[in-house]
Amino acid sequence: MRRQIVVALCLSGAVVLSACQRSADAEVQRALKDVNVIDESNLSDIMLTVGDPDEAVNYFQRTAEQNPDRIDLKRGLGKSLVRAGRPTEAASVWRTVIAHPQVTNDDRVSLADALIRANEWPAAEAELNKVPPTHETYERYRLEAMVADSKKNWKKADSFYEIAAGLTTKPSGVLNNWGFSKLTRGDAPGAERLFVQALTFDPTMFTTKNNLVLARGAQRKYELPVVKMSQSEKAELLYTMALTAIKQGDVSTGKQLLREAVETHPQHFETAARALAALEA
């Protein structure tokens, strides 16, 4: 009898020990899962910022297929496809995101962004119209400005550009876009002011420097602006200004600027040299 009691106690102890072991294993699995999620989040952030765009696409495609219910992975795939210059595919992914129960207004704005990059302007405008006016973000108003620009609704475009610039601490990009919009409308002085303003926020943007030279050239201001530039950049800007002068009929000024461009470039400036030779011939 005593032996039966001991056996029973041992068996019950084994059951308890087994239950404890299973509980401990479950806790370990949960902890490992949490760690994996944290690691995935860190890796996702890296892929979206400094990772190679194509590698990021592969990573998010693979991981999203393994976790089809994870909307964050679909968002990562949509963003990485945009970075990789594949906006049509990105738009397709963002459409699956906005069909998800956890969709946000930012997701719809991201879809509009992909559609604009894919040159689907009416579809982009339709998506932006579905975003409530209370959703006031830099990205939303930047896209609204671009849509208004595409429709030549200058008053609305200016309003949206101004709002977007006020909603970010890094407005150089939107100021550059706004300036280029002004330049295409024929408002060269207004464009020049915006390009100068953009460069105060980011003096490294060569595109803005080039646009500034175009705006000054359109006003027949054939001196380079006082901005920070490398020797190569200076040569490129002189070349841009030369072409602007030539197109406006100021050929002799254009020739002189081409000579300066060739002399300024630290290496052989083939494009400028060829243009100069063609003019002199």
Description:
By secondary structure, this protein is mostly helical. The protein has three domains: 47-130, Serine Threonine Protein Phosphatase 5, Tetratricopeptide repeat, CATH 1.25.40; 136-224, Tetratricopeptide repeat domain (Serine Threonine Protein Phosphatase 5, Tetratricopeptide repeat, Alpha Horseshoe), CATH 1.25.40; 229-281. The radius of gyration is 29 Å and the shape is elongated. Helices cover 78% and strands 0% of the residues. It is built from 14 helices and no strands. Residues 1-26 form the signal peptide. TPR repeats lie at residues 37-70. It comes from Pseudotabrizicola alkalilacus. Keywords: Signal, TPR repeat.
What's the structural blueprint in terms of helices and strands?
Elements lengths: L1 H48 L3 H14 L4 H13 L3 H12 L6 H13 L3 H9 L8 H13 L3 H13 L5 H14 L2 H14 L4 H13 L12 H17 L3 H14 L5 H11 L1
